[in-house]
Amino acid sequence: MNIKLLLSTSFIAAGLAASAQDAGKTFAITGDGNHDFMWMNIRQVDINTGKIVQDVYQREKTAFVMMDADSKANSMAAQRPTETMVAAAAYDKNQNKLFFTPMRVGELRWLDLSAGGNTQKYYTVTSSLLNTKVALTDEANHFTRMVIAADGNGYALTNDGSRLVKFTTGKKVTITDLGPVVDDESNKTVSIKNKCTSWGGDMIADAYNKLYIISANHYVFSLDIDSRKAKQIGYITGLPATYSTNGAAVDNDGNVVVASANAFAGYYKFSMKDFVASFIEGSDMVYNASDLANGNLLYQKEVDAARTFADFKPVVPVLTNEAHIFPNPVTNSEFNIYFEGQAAGKYNVTITDLSGKPLMNRIVTVNAKTQIETVPMSRSFAKGMYMVKVTDANNKFIFTERIVVN
Fold this sequence. Notes:
The protein is 4% helix and 41% strand. The chain is mainly β and 406 residues long. It has two domains: 25-295, Neuraminidase, CATH 2.120.10; 304-405, Macroglobulin (MG2) domain (Immunoglobulin-like), CATH 2.60.40. A five-stranded mixed β-sheet has the order 4-8-7-6-5, with no helix packed on it. A five-stranded mixed β-sheet has the order 13-17-16-15-14, with no helix packed on it. The chain is globular and about 55 Å long. The two termini are 28 Å apart. Residues 1-21 and 308-321 have low confidence and may be disordered.
């Protein structure tokens, strides 16, 4: 039987369709602004200038409702969403959600930034995977590093590296324990588990689906998700002596911007080429920040430049296996992709307009002979027709297909 090949994407990471303003959208977990250390407020920052754009959530002022993500019933928690303070947050710009884990609480929570009304909507998932079954007052068990990776999943890491967890970001959020992070063989004197050098800080991600840990004490590690090996690759210089690096995010030029929870000394940025930090002139010095979160990826420009989007052809799979996308037309800002018989590995999925201009891209990991992935689409997609191109890890063309967004 001749089955029409449909279009789809399994993970949608940082989108190229965002405007320049959205590309700089970053969220900071901050204090009240009185030289305090109450990391319970959420403020939007322009990552390129280090200036506060607006107050998103103020712990004593903002109206909110917090709901159980599965039952949609109001949460029984008497506390505010950030009541126990937050040191780990991640922004999914495709769905406009800010995920975070409160300290000393075994929950994953998120703010739906697209929800209308004057009352903010927070959702929460309680999981034993976020509680090490040791007293949560032990700072070793706190999740202090979190990011949304290029594969569209969120990743969070405890201070002591004993728990790397993965969480999905779609309608049904699931949490998976990936196990402990281990030192790469090249790590000699600096271990990812060392409290003095490697605890705290933040995580960022690159367009190749690798993670990077910036510890509070200025050490930088690369982290391979599959092997969970952390390799020490640098040390940030040029920072004030009392400046802890607690928040990290990527700016529009591919630099890493850091913020401190201890010092009211503004924002600094550095390149992964030399790890030499420089002060961002005019950046905010009123608020300290325990975490930064945005949707930018390291090396995104390099990946985009290496890709070509020519040769969009009618839907003819190059391999004998087939992938199917449904529903098409897309009516609810999401669709499914059905992989059957594809070789295990990573696949690049790119959505473009009809001229071939790339709008969003993702890396899809296929592990099973039959696999279905639900793909949330950015609400920035207007109604109309788009193209999807799928290539394998070696950039070999697999197929291209049209989809209609209603």
